[in-house]
Design a protein that fits this description.
The chain is of the alpha/beta class and 321 residues long. It has 13 helices and 13 strands.
């Protein structure tokens, strides 16, 4: 009996000590932030960099980052998120939709900010989304105005008839964009066909099918496509089929043009949100999802020249990396 009482007392002491460490860290103004990036490619890399820069500039050395990359494997995201929960991080950055979904499943207490997420309602299965997720989730969206992207395709390729929409079927936000773009393009008189792949292993076969019957290919903000953009261009350019992309990173590798946002700025805005949550006490449940303030028409000069295309004067050439 005495041994059991002693064990229980020690457990209480240890628990109190652990709680004291957490409270002490917050009192000292020190924060640990877990970052899970779904896959490595230019757009997501820029968003992560912007997020870290914002937090570091605003908090200095009072923030520590635990950074993990799922390498495009959605099954790895929950493992990373559960490790963040076990480590007791103060906030989680979920970079891309699969990371956000895993974070929301892993914890309903630790604040979660998403970035490079196209649609929060689609990602988190929210009905009647009013702009605020609620609970412990908010963040930034990379959704570009899809009607304007469709208008850009019409502006650049008015004589085209068949548009192929290329995307990864395991990314729900890609499916959403393709559905909207199909309707927008059909309203402009184009014949549209979807070309989906389940992962990087079957992209080559799917792209080859697409170029055999399409005048133009559209690629949304799709992480798997972006990380395999060089493969796409190695098929499309020799076939003489132009690709319009939903974001700048993919356009650098395989596109002729894009209506793009600045992912670094998007990540930076997310970092500012994190500081407001951690250091200023803002209630994340009341923070509306934020969107990029402006979009720019950009083109890939090298690929345009290879295909013999001239861009309108209001398009900006992508800078060389």
């Amino acid at each position: 009996m005495r041994r059991n009482f002693f064990a229980a007392a020690m457990a209480l002491v240890l628990a109190a000590g652990s709680l004291g460490m957490t409270v002490g860290a917050q009192e000292d103004g020190m924060y640990t932030v877990g970052i899970c990036q779904y896959v490595q490619h230019e757009a997501l890399d820029a968003a992560t960099r912007g997020f870290k820069d914002a937090m570091t500039e605003l908090l200095g050395d009072r923030v520590e980052f635990k950074e993990q990359n799922a390498q495009g494997d959605s099954h790895t995201c929950p493992i990373i998120m559960n490790s963040f929960v076990s480590d007791g991080v103060d906030l989680i950055l979920a970079n891309a939709t699969p990371a956000l979904q895993a974070a929301a499943t892993a914890t309903d207490e630790i604040p979660i900010l998403g970035t490079s997420v196209t649609g929060y309602a689609v990602a988190l299965d929210i009905d009647d989304f009013d702009g605020t997720v609620g609970g412990n989730v908010s963040g930034t969206s990379d959704l570009a105005p899809l009607d304007e992207q469709a208008a850009m395709i019409e502006e650049l390729f008015p004589e085209a008839k068949n548009i192929g929409l290329l995307y990864c079927s395991s990314e729900p936000n890609s499916q959403y964009q393709v559905d909207v773009m199909t309707e927008e393009l059909a309203n402009r008189g184009y014949s549209c066909e979807s070309y989906s792949f389940s992962d990087s292993n079957d992209i080559s076969a799917v792209v080859n099918r697409a170029v055999s019957s399409c005048d133009v290919i559209y690629v949304p903000t799709d992480n798997t496509a972006a990380s395999n953009a060089e493969l796409i261009t190695n098929i499309c350019v020799p076939a003489g089929v132009p690709v319009v992309t939903g974001e700048e990173g993919a356009c650098r590798k395989c596109g002729v043009a894009t209506l793009s946002i600045d992912y670094y700025s998007l990540g930076y805005a997310t970092g500012e949100m994190a500081v407001r949550v951690l250091d200023e006490g803002e209630d994340i449940s009341e923070m509306a999802v934020e969107y990029a303030p402006e979009f720019t028409k950009k083109y890939n000069q090298e690929i345009c020249e290879a295909l013999g295309l001239e861009m309108p004067e209001d398009y900006v050439a992508l800078e060389a990396e």
